[in-house]
Amino acid sequence: MALSPSTHPVQIHKLPQFAYIDALRWMPHLSTFTRHILLATYDSDSSTPSLQTLTFCPSRAAPSLTPQASVTAPSRITSLKISPSPLTPSKPIAAASAFSGSLLFYSADLVNGTLNLEFSVPEKGFHLGPVSGIDLNENGSECVSVGEDGRVNLVSISAKTGFRRVFDSNGLVSYSSVRWASPVEFVTGAFGFGLHWWDQRKAGGPVALFKDNWTGGTASGIVHAIDIHPSRKHTCLAGGSSGTLFAWDIRLPKQPIILSGVGVGDAPANSLVESDIWEVQYDNYTHSSKIINSSSSRILPAMICSEDGILGVIEQGEEPIELLAEPCAINSFDIDRQNPSDVICSLEWESIAILTRP
Q: Where can this protein be found (predicted)?
């Protein structure tokens, strides 16, 4: 059951759009007053998927979004990631995976307002069916992809040629999400309550496995989203079905820490959501004295969004904070890395909500 909204004054503005929003991401700041957002949209009237950049003009009274650039995508977008270009900050790299099984890389020129396709990995031989998850490494040089077909692939962005297959389960495992942990390590989320930890220095498959039944067999379990904090790369945060949010410490692989969940044995009684968690990110905005004075074993605060319309913050051992409650699903959100007080999220009813925390 969702808790009552936080007593902290959060500024919330909802801006209607003209298409369904599959994903959205903050882009790097050019200056204090110039900010941009990248959208993956789908126009159901014309069956047209597209990528768009918007200029964000902040204002406590009435913030605004102005269209800047737009390109048509070959297929509906399943995952969207941004990485700053190390040589040209004003031209970040955007990676977008598609239902058709392709992976596309764009450069966004935020000064001149253009969005250009740099190269793409075609469907043939890459994934069988949709690409369910991707992630860019810290310097934007490599992208990892996973699919329901059980394939794990690596694409070198600098080479702009093909891909390297890391693993193929031949359908025995279906992957739903992925996240880099270090330049050579990443974690994949799977159907059936699973997490797999991979190390490119060790061939043959994952180096560590986690599998648990969150719901006691009452429902199927899928890990929809993963996050790993830059300063605590040994711990993976995972969100999935039945409102489950848990942390998996690679040093203690058999002892997950359950932070939220419905019908989960060790979950707190005041779980924030009851439905699928679509996205999870560590929330660097929250700085409690317990976190500052604690050891590295304490799980840092996390923000989640869910199918039952909740955007909130969950902190280990604390009451969860409900930032936004909607009568529709909240499909995606992003915390501004350079200004963590600002959060954007996409509502199923073709709107963007912009939240500013004090």
A: Nucleus
